[in-house]
Design goal:
GO terms for molecular function: methyltransferase activity. 49% of the residues lie in helices and 17% in strands. The protein has 354 residues and is an alpha/beta fold. A hairpin with a 6-residue loop joins strand 10 and strand 11. The longest helix is centred in the middle third of the chain and has 25 residues, at 147-171.
Length: 354
């Protein structure tokens, strides 16, 4: 190998490390853009940075620097010195965009989320949940004590589920069932998508009272009040009976294996003959496969999510083998895993009573 080839490889490797080290700064750049309403204020046409600064109540020169950083991240485009427009990706930072991710960005750059990450090394050493040590309580109890943060979390989860809510109704045969209970369904976006696409179905959104806080608005907005019930409860103790399909999205990954078994066991108890449990979560491969580049848009994010579960809530992302094990312990048999192509990295995991 020529020396120039060695230098090129070294530069590529160094660039990767530098980009990753700057990752938290990029996240805080997004947070600042959302808090200053940058994309919302820019609108659909190029604008001068000084005008954006005035509208945002900010100083012109620092605003220019922020806008240039956003352009460097691919969220804005600088057409001429100090003149910027919004890219399609940047438009998702406008709260008025139908696919907005502003609440999602706000939640995942929230100090309550980020602080526990400072103790990731200790969580790796001990297996302990860093959030509990930092805040003196677990994550969901903390949300219950802080209504504003809880509302922000619910809004973030609603934005996070929107792609799945659009894809799931057409990726799974719901016609086999009559009633679906969305276990841990939050404000109901996912179930609203399913019921809107399948007129013959009725449904139940089951969650804690705080999780259901916005669900009445969701169901009313979709005209589903007559076809969907909202039931508050604790899925560690029971789930509502009467459905032949029990749906869970991004629930099990919040919890340890033993806790996941308890949740699944409650679904198993309520499951009628011929019923099904449908789990919607990422399924990690048995061996990490990044190809020639680190995948930061799909698998890479899933592994970061796995660490987020470790430091903030104590849960984990799982492989197919892991899902088979927790299902088996709960009296279920995992029958299939199907990638949800239009909502990567999620898969549809089907389980029946054994």
């Amino acid at each position: 190998m020529a020396n120039s080839d060695v230098r090129a490889a070294d530069t590529t490797d160094r660039d990767l490390i530098v980009r990753l080290a700057f990752g938290s700064m990029a996240a805080q750049t997004l947070r600042a853009a959302v808090r200053l309403r940058v994309v919302e204020l820019m609108g659909d046409t190029p604008r001068q940075a000084a005008r954006v600064a005035i509208d945002a109540g900010a100083e012109p020169q620092p605003m220019t620097r922020l806008l240039r950083a956003l352009a460097g991240l691919g969220l804005l485009r600088e057409h001429a010195p100090d003149s910027f427009s919004v890219t399609p990706a940047g438009a998702l930072l406008d709260p008025g965009h139908p696919d907005s991710l502003t609440s999602f960005v706000g939640m995942f750059t929230e100090p309550a989320i980020v602080r526990a990450w400072e103790h990731l090394d200790n969580s790796v050493r001990t297996g302990d949940v860093a959030f509990d040590a930092v805040f003196g309580t677990d994550f969901f109890s903390h949300l219950a004590q802080h209504p504003t943060l809880s509302a922000q979390f619910n809004a973030a989860m609603s934005q996070a589920v929107s792609a799945t809510a659009a894809a799931l109704p057409y990726a799974f045969d719901f016609s086999r069932f009559t009633t679906v209970t969305d276990v841990g369904g939050g404000e109901g976006t996912l179930l609203a998508g399913v019921l809107s696409a399948h007129a013959g179905l009725t449904g139940v959104v089951f969650d804690t009272a705080q999780g259901l806080a916005e669900a009445p608005k969701t169901m009313a907005r979709h005209g589903l009040n007559g076809r969907c019930s909202l039931i508050a409860g604790d899925f560690f103790r029971s789930v509502p009976e009467g459905s032949d399909l029990y749906l869970m999205k991004s629930v099990l990954h919040d919890w340890t294996d033993d806790q996941a078994v308890t949740i699944l066991s409650q679904c198993r108890k309520a499951l009628p003959p011929g019923g099904l449990v449908l789990i919607v979560e990422p399924v990690l491969p048995e061996v990490v496969d990044t190809g020639t580049e680190v995948d930061v848009t799909d698998g890479g994010v899933t592994y970061l999510s796995d660490l987020n579960m470790l430091v903030n809530v104590g849960g984990r992302e799982r492989t197919r083998r892991d899902f088979e094990e927790v299902c088996h312990r709960a009296g279920l048999t995992l029958t299939s895993v199907t990638p949800l192509t239009d909502a990567a990295p999620f898969s549809l995991i089907e389980a029946v009573a054994r």
